[in-house]
Amino acid sequence: MIIAPPKRPRSSEDNILPLINIVFLLLIFFMLAGVLAQHPPFALDPPSTESTEASTQLDREVLSIAADGRLAFGGEPIESAQLSARLADWPHDKPLQIRADGKLKADALTGLFDTLRGAGIAEVNLLTQHRDP
C-alpha cells in the first residue's frame, strides 16, 4: 500500500517567484530593445513644421548644432575642425541626421553643409518638430 505524502500548505511566497522572473525578463527586454536618445550638451529649439514626410527614428549618432554654431556629435561636444575627421568612416549609403536650432543663421548651416560635403556625406536629414495646424 502506497501512502501519499502529506500536502504542503501553499504559502504566498510560491506566487512571488514567477512574478519576479517576469519582471526581470521585462527589464532585460527593455534594456536590450530600448534606444537611449542622446541629448546635446546645449539647449536646442528645433524648427517646427506643419507637414512632415515621415516619422524617423533617431539614430544614436546625431549631429546637433546650436544657434551660436556649437556642434555636438553623438551627444558629445565637438569642434568644427574635428568634424571631417570624425565623419571620415561614415557609411555612404546612410543619411546623417542633423538637429539644428531654429534660430541658426542660414549661412552657418550652409557652411556646415560644405564641411559635410567635403567629408563625403551625400545625404542629410534635417530633423524638425511636428506642429499641428
Percent range of helical residues: 25-40%
Poorly predicted ranges (pLDDT <50, ≥5 residues)?
none
Strand order of the largest sheet: 4-3-2-5-6
- Please report the number of helical segments: 3
Beta content? 15-25%
Backbone structural class: alpha/beta
- Mean pLDDT equals 84
How would you characterize this protein structure?
Helix content is 29%, strand content 16%. By secondary structure, it is an alpha/beta fold. The chain contains 3 helices and 7 strands. β2 (63-65) and β3 (71-73) form a beta hairpin. A 5-stranded mixed β-sheet has the order 4-3-2-5-6, with no helix packed on it. The protein has helices spanning 13-33, 83-86, 106-118, and strands spanning 48-49, 63-65, 71-73, 76-78, 96-100, 124-126, 129-130.
Q: Any descriptors?
A:
alpha/beta, 3 helices, 133 residues, 7 strands, 29% helix
Report a brief summary of the structure.
This protein is of the alpha/beta class and 133 residues long. The protein has helices at residues 13-33, 83-86, 106-118; strands at residues 48-49, 63-65, 71-73, 76-78, 96-100, 124-126, 129-130.
Topology:
Blueprint: H1 13-33, E1 48-49, E2 63-65, E3 71-73, E4 76-78, H2 83-86, E5 96-100, H3 106-118, E6 124-126, E7 129-130
Parallel strand pairs: 1-7, 2-5, 5-6
Antiparallel strand pairs: 2-3, 3-4
